Amino acid sequence: MKDIQTRADVDQMIYTFYEKVMVDPEIGFFFTEIVQLDLEHHLPKIADFWETTLFHQAKYKGNPITPHIAIHEKSPLTQAHFDRWVKVFCQTIDDLFSGGIAEMAKQRAQSIATVMLIKIKTV
Ligand code: HEM
């Protein structure tokens, strides 16, 4: 299995993750009911975020915390929800990639999720 190396790899990772997470019995409803996502607009933005995070490309300009605070106000986001998000994300990576960047992506997901939940709870 190859490592995450290109934008096409990041796109594959994100599209596969969303295929799983949007039908997930524990957290799918956030993506389909709490927020009705326009995927054509949303997925490239999420891929920009990961390209920026993994390859230091200055693509994503935004604040990833703000939309999650808005979601939390509509339907509380819990530790269990974040644990599930990280689990599905890491499983997606393990199904598709292996290597140093793949490991870094999983670590970053976990650490961003931890910080995000703390920030959401302290607003
Ligand atoms: C249970 C956990 C999570 C849920 C249910 C969730 C759900 C969502 C939803 C529904 C949106 C779209 C919001 C909107 O457009 O109004 C969104 C945006 C986003 N999420 Fe999450 N998310 C979770 C955790 C995470 C984590 C851990 C990360 C990063 C590692 C992340 C990264 C992002 C980014 C970058 C955006 C786009 C922000 C922007 O619009 O600039 N999310 N999330």
From TrEMBL:
It comes from Reichenbachiella faecimaris. Keywords: Heme, Iron, Metal-binding, Transport. GO terms for molecular function: heme binding; metal ion binding; oxygen binding. Coiled coil: none annotated. The keyword Heme applies. Transmembrane segments: none annotated. InterPro entries: Globin-like_sf, Globin/Proto, Hemoglobin_trunc. The keyword Plastid does not apply. Signal peptide: none annotated. It holds the Pfam family Bac_globin. This is Hemoglobin. Heme binds at residue 41.
